[in-house]
Design brief:
Rossmann fold, 29% strand, 5 domains, Immunoglobulin-like, nine-stranded mixed sheet
Length: 792
């Protein structure tokens, strides 16, 4: 018996007996006839197998006919025609334009054939259900039919589409959702989705897992370091299929499309991602964009002539990344107890860095006790004696230190010496204290420095010297609390012996501490470096501090030379060496720039994470392409406390060079935070210039950010259908996977599934042609066997 006939018998199996009073007569009659058949065949001279076969066929036919006396009937529930909804949701994203391996038609073309309303499965579905048809790419769109279907969308908001259908018919009887897609959702988040709350979903997976040849740039990231040789590292993750054993060329281009660097990766493997890294030093400030593109070396020139390409698509061969170099200029305040060589080389090093401005206070004379000058008529410090400035009020008095102000200072800047208020000190991003005792500062200034690091988020670097650390009496001051090392209460002069610097294990992991590219080059540099002679003695490292440089004394003792740590919102560092300038004066080659490079990298690290008064960030809260991008702005006052009632305007420049202005509103009732929403519709690079103003209208600061919109790159992230995702949806929602060729069978089986609105339907089994055919077939078979063997 065929499987099809078995299925029909199962569907028609009786579950209701209308004439139960005929059960006993039917059993008696059937039993009597059965015994009569057995007696008749027993008396016939024939082979045993033949008699058994004939008797069995006739007995089954008699039992089937006797059963009809009880009127077997089939009672079942059938969907009420038109009472139940059924949604057909078709993916129209451009990823369906891919033609699978060995196929002449694309996935979209094969799907469009099945979407024709004249297809049998659509006709039958329309007879039993109220069919609602939808298409989706970036958003869900209802359609009357799929006559105008075209796979041209640049995104696959699959999750959003299913959620919209489920929410729309949450209070109505919906039998299920037929989802026709490749399963590659561009809005799929990592958060768990409760698919059990959705109607049964029946995914139809489009495409084969054996995808055609393609090279795709899956992800591009950029990171900035204080390592001067490569302040920006662009990393691209690339995957190829169909080019195993070949070479792939990766190119880095700037925003204007000019080629910056090229790398070649040989002998790639199918479906195995590999990474390429580019290191570049931008010569511009502000928001910059870089592009990474990849192609098979054998198909050079395919970006200008697509006919040279054998890939499935070129839309995923490139991606862009944004780099924000617009945080500077950074202001660094250098305060020294005396003129020294250290400042000379530090100032010379930073003169080449356009993003760092060094402002200095160098003490050239200490304050002197007042009683020493009772006989004098002038209150000016003795250094101004017999000069034209002696009578001026702005000169330092005899009981004040004489300070030399250096750097590109504005009028009146640092005229009163070290800042005495937060709004004056907080204009700086970092402070460097060099060979200066704690008594130089007032108690208020010491507390102000601590607030500068912990609250403002600034950086503090103390250099070694005769009046630094323990020798400077910092161990019981707020500034000493900032340092990453404990200061012993016992004074000991700086060590006067030769020693060499060495990198610790943690130091090797910090790019800003290294000067050379490789570990071996760095080791050789330290060997050739001139010996140093001054080292401050301190106590143990504080918890959480990191020792990056160390020295080994002549007695074989290892001591820290450079220690760092986080403190509040900022960071602090202690460079315990007091004569780093020897590195430059006593080096073999006068053209060696190692010291200058080390200083620039150290200062960049010191100011790298210092917050600005206006901070801006572009945040895409979800992967959903329809979800607006949020431009979040944080505004602080002069004391770096959240500022309310600020006015924040955002000027967005689109890839088409169109400009529009947004107004940021207070965000979630959080003090000092503002936000505006924007949905990028055009692929490409976006810039946003944020201007924050005080409540009185005065400008606080301008800041920039940017972002990249690449829906095609996300759409073609992978060409392989996401079977696992679709199977998860089907299993957890109560549906099942359906093949494109099996839509007819699936629609026929819907009537036997759990449908919201059904009606009972009872019919007689005897009136079905399958049962009648079985009974007649059994009798004909028995008669045929007898005729064949001559028993008739």
């Amino acid at each position: 018996m065929s499987d099809w006939l078995q299925e029909q018998l199962i569907l028609e199996w009786p579950n209701v007996w209308a004439a139960r009073n005929w059960i006993v007569p039917a059993c008696l009659l059937g039993g009597a006839v059965f015994l009569l058949v057995l007696w008749a065949y027993r008396s016939i001279e024939a082979p045993l197998w033949l008699k058994v076969c004939c008797a069995t066929c006739k007995s089954l036919a008699i039992v089937l006919l006797a059963t009809m006396l009880v009127e077997p009937m089939r009672s079942e529930s059938k969907p009420v025609p038109g009472a139940n909804l059924f949604a057909v949701v078709a993916d129209r994203s451009q990823s369906l334009q891919i033609a699978d391996h060995g196929e002449d038609h694309t996935r979209a073309e094969k799907l469009k054939q099945q979407l024709d309303r004249s297809q049998p499965w659509q006709v039958r579905l329309g007879q039993e259900f109220d069919v609602r048809r939808y298409e989706f790419d970036q958003q869900l769109v209802p359609v009357g039919d799929f006559q105008e279907y075209a796979a041209e969308g640049n995104a696959s908001a699959l999750v959003s589409a299913l959620s919209s259908v489920a929410e729309r018919y949450a209070e109505r009887p919906i039998a299920g959702i037929l989802l026709l897609t490749d399963g590659n959702a561009t809005d799929f988040a990592e958060t768990e989705i409760d698919w059990s709350s959705y109607p049964p979903i029946f995914p139809v997976m489009l495409g084969k897992e054996d995808t055609p040849g393609d090279i795709g740039v899956q992800r591009v990231t950029a990171s900035q370091t204080n390592f001067e040789a490569a302040p920006v590292t662009v990393t691209a993750e690339i995957e190829g299929k169909g080019f195993a054993g070949q070479s792939v060329v990766a190119e880095l281009l700037d925003e204007k499309g000019e080629l910056l660097q090229t790398q070649t990766v040989t002998d790639i493997r199918d479906d195995q991602a590999f990474s390429v890294r580019f290191q570049v030093k931008p010569d511009q400030r502000g928001v910059l964009f870089y592009q990474v593109r990849a192609y098979a070396q054998s198909q050079k020139g395919l970006f200008t002539d697509a006919s040279k390409s054998t890939e499935s698509t070129l839309l995923n061969n490139s991606r862009m990344v944004m780099v924000n170099r617009g945080q500077g200029p950074y202001n660094v305040l250098y305060v020294s107890g005396r003129p020294n060589w250290e400042f000379k080389f530090l100032n010379r090093s930073l003169a080449e860095d356009i993003e760092v401005e060094l402002h200095g206070l160098i003490r050239i004379a200490k304050k002197e006790p007042k009683f020493q000058f009772r006989e004098k008529d002038s209150n000016a410090n003795r250094i101004f004696t017999n000069t034209d400035d002696e009578g001026k009020e702005q000169v330092e008095q005899y009981d004040e230190a004489v300070l030399l102000r250096v750097g590109k200072l504005e009028e009146g800047e640092l005229s009163g010496g070290f800042p005495k208020s937060a709004d004056e000190l907080f204009e700086y991003h970092a402070i460097i204290l060099d060979d200066l005792e704690a008594d130089f500062f007032t108690q208020q200034q010491k507390s102000l420095v601590q607030q500068f690091v912990s609250m403002r988020g600034g950086g503090l670097l103390m250099l070694g010297g005769m009046e630094s650390f323990t020798e400077g009496e910092y161990h019981r001051s707020p500034i000493g609390e900032l340092l990453p090392i404990y200061l012993s209460s016992v004074k000991s002069p700086p060590q006067q012996q030769e020693f060499a610097l060495s990198l610790t294990r943690e130091g090797l992991l910090e790019p800003w501490v290294r000067v050379r590219t490789t570990q071996e080059e760095e080791r050789q540099r330290l060997i050739e470096m001139p010996k140093l002679r001054t080292l401050n003695s301190v106590g143990a490292l504080k918890p959480g501090a990191s020792e990056l440089l160390s020295v080994r004394t002549e007695q074989g003792e290892t001591r820290p030379a450079l220690v760092t740590q986080r403190f509040g919102k900022g960071r602090t560092a202690a460079l315990l060496v007091g004569d780093l300038w020897r590195w430059k004066l006593h080096q073999a080659s006068p053209d060696n720039e190692d010291l200058e490079k080390a200083w620039r990298q150290t200062i960049r690290w010191l100011v790298g994470d210092v917050p600005q008064r206006v901070r801006v960030e572009a945040i895409r809260q979800q992967d959903d392409p329809n979800h607006p991008l949020q431009i979040a702005v944080e505004v602080n006052d002069e004391n770096f406390k959240p500022l309310d009632n600020a006015t924040v305007s955002i000027e967005v420049t689109t890839p088409d060079d169109e400009t529009l202005t947004l107004t940021a509103e207070p965000k979630d009732a959080v003090s000092g935070q503002y936000a505006a929403s924007y949905v990028p519709r055009t692929p490409g690079a976006y810039r946003a210039k944020v201007t924050a103003r005080n409540p009185d209208g005065s400008e606080i600061q301008q800041s920039e950010t940017g972002w990249v919109s690449e829906p095609a790159g996300d759409e073609f992230y992978t060409l392989k259908p996401n079977r696992d995702f679709l199977e998860t949806i089907a299993r957890e929602s109560g549906g099942e996977m359906v093949s494109l060729s099996g839509l007819d069978t699936f629609v026929r089986s819907l009537a036997n599934r759990d449908i919201p609105v059904v009606e009972p339907k009872i019919h007689s089994v005897w009136h079905t042609w399958a049962v009648f055919l079985l009974a007649v077939g059994l009798l004909v078979a028995e008669w045929g066997l007898r005729r064949w063997k001559g028993l008739a």
